[in-house]
């Protein structure tokens, strides 16, 4: 049979439009009996223009019974009964009429009444198959059986299951009306998608309005087929095609020992449009603590997306009239990402993480990462480029915060304009070998910067704002590079630097002033607020060499396990020199004398954002180092005789610097490190050696004496499950089908030990941390993060997380049994956002624990 056939019975069906006469016309064919079967390969079509009045019981002038064509198909057989005017379709049947589609195992179509009856079937072991499915526009449902009248658009449905948004409606018997509304008896409403839901509201009676709402009368909760004494006299579930709808968020009521009764996380959700939303929530406690929170998400496809999270708390603790204290805590987080497709030459991004020092310890202690992060950083940046142009414009705002000393540094803004290197002496079309001067390149860089630094409490105070540093700098370096003997790079350059400042300093010695310690005579530093421009130009010569050598030791025995050992040695050396430009470049250094007429030199721009443009006298620096790796070639033990490379030392480094023109102590400390990986475990060893001795006060002075000032050791061990290393899946099975070895898990261990001895006394610090998770079954997951505090000799902050997937519900338990931040949270809740408040929650805050 063709995929779709028009359903014609000559006694009652009239096809809309003009139909072409076919080879077989059921009404006039003498060999077709009254009860016949049309097989899947047959075609039965009638041209109603060939039917005469004597051949039919219907008048040819009668209006067509169907407004549109009815299409049908079945994979087994199709039977027509011309006496009862019925058609029977068997197995994987489908009937289409206008925008209605009905599929089922078995279909019976009454041509006279225009009623279609559909039924489910049973497979060889008695399981349902071919479940009747109805689809009309946005209305979709499944049922055991139902009848539908194409003429009146009414229907009767047995054991229906219909989805409305995130919810599902079940009913023993339903009646559909022409407007699409459905009356239901024996109804169930749930967000569980199982055919036999794990929980539901048992509805005495209900009316469903597709695309609008479900209205119901007296109902009660049923969990795992157990009726609960939770009754609702009446209610409704709204439904909308929108992704989100504005509405009230009910608060969570609780009790806390230190802050009393509370209502938390209550507020309002604003669904402005498809691109932006916002949630405003508040917390209030009986002791006086209160807080507000605002979260917002925004997105424009192919342009940008981001989210904002702001929280503000007034935290009240202690007893009123005795030891009550009040503190303000706040946090601001903002991320913004621009889509790569939005603009090829322009980009704006933001990552802001700013909070008061104690905010995380007060409100985010359930997260180890937030609790023990001492440094926070923020960055907002804008970048602009121009096609076929070497010019670039960038603007940044940065923030750094240290919770240990409460020092905050803000750079706002930093704007820079730069030009990529161009070669002004190169020809557009190169002919012959390039001349040396054609490699002369020139760039341009300009930058504007403002910096503010201070304590958290007085960062934006008037006194601290006066200490804000700002300035402008630009430079024009002109350079050329030569390569000599393959290893040596010689780079002569000429650099012009110019700086614009709004202030400079002036120092003088005041013999009549008294210092804080009571000493008479102090150095007074005055800040002169005046715009000045300072500049310099200086030639620089830089020579560097980075050769690479390979030392290989090969075994003479072809059957030896270790075939060869190779050591890679890459020494590095670079020297840079700037000549004395006194008398050529302006001098920005001044002197003052103390009471003994001893002179001291200082720079007018000491401590400024870009420093002093010129260096007093000549300068030179030599940086030296050596790095490389060690690996060996190992012969395989099998019969193939193949060889594999194994790293013994992944990388080693030794480096230091030498100040050529310093008065004394020209060498900088020597830094050494080496790392390797053995059986998936990372090892790193490092040390710092000071080449100079210290005096009785612990101060370095110009006497050579190699001192080990720091040595450290790091190791990281990770054991993830290798899913590709499974053996026979039929082995080691438990009775319930679980595999002993098919348990996804991972464990990570990190250990750090460090010894520091900057002067006479040494100190050892150690840290050990561990994290891991195990998926016991497909629905059980257990996670842990912990460590050991060697200084306190106790287990460090430990956090356990246990989750259980209950299909349409989720159970989670999170707790910390040790240390200052003990807490636990137990939660069972429905997954669906529609019934988010259908939950059981039990928690204890860290403030509730005076003892475990």
Q: Whole-number radius of gyration?
A: 41 Å
Largest sheet: 31 strands, antiparallel
**Spans with pLDDT under 50 lasting ≥5 residues?**
1-60, 722-741
Count of alpha/pi helices? 3
Tell me the number of strands.
Answer: 52
End-to-end span in angstroms?
Answer: 76 Å
Shape: elongated
Structural class: mainly beta
Q: How helical, in percent, are the residues?
A: under 10%
Q: How confident overall, as mean pLDDT?
A: 83
Q: Beta-sheet strand percentage?
A: over 45%
In brief, what are we looking at here?
With 852 residues, the protein is mainly beta.
Describe this structure in words.
This protein is an all-beta fold and 852 residues long. 2% of the residues lie in helices and 58% in strands. The chain contains three helices and 52 strands. The strands form four sheets. The chain has a 31-stranded antiparallel β-sheet that branches. The longest helix has 5 residues, at 359-363.
Secondary structure topology:
Elements: E1 5-6, E2 35-38, E3 70-73, E4 77-81, E5 86-97, E6 100-110, E7 115-119, E8 121-122, E9 128-129, E10 133-136, E11 139-149, E12 155-164, E13 167-176, E14 182-190, E15 199-209, E16 213-216, E17 219-223, E18 226-232, E19 235-238, E20 247-249, E21 252-256, E22 260-270, E23 276-285, E24 290-300, E25 304-317, E26 325-338, E27 346-355, H1 359-363, H2 368-371, E28 375-385, E29 391-402, E30 407-422, E31 441-455, H3 462-465, E32 469-479, E33 482-484, E34 488-514, E35 520-545, E36 549-554, E37 562-578, E38 589-593, E39 599-603, E40 619-635, E41 643-659, E42 670-678, E43 681-694, E44 700-720, E45 745-756, E46 763-774, E47 780-789, E48 794-795, E49 799-806, E50 809-816, E51 823-830, E52 839-844
Antiparallel strand pairs: 1-3, 2-4, 3-5, 4-5, 5-6, 6-7, 6-10, 7-11, 8-9, 10-11, 11-12, 12-13, 13-14, 14-15, 15-16, 15-17, 16-19, 17-18, 20-22, 21-22, 22-23, 23-24, 24-25, 25-26, 26-27, 27-28, 28-29, 29-30, 30-31, 31-32, 32-34, 33-34, 34-35, 35-37, 36-37, 37-40, 38-39, 40-41, 41-42, 42-43, ...
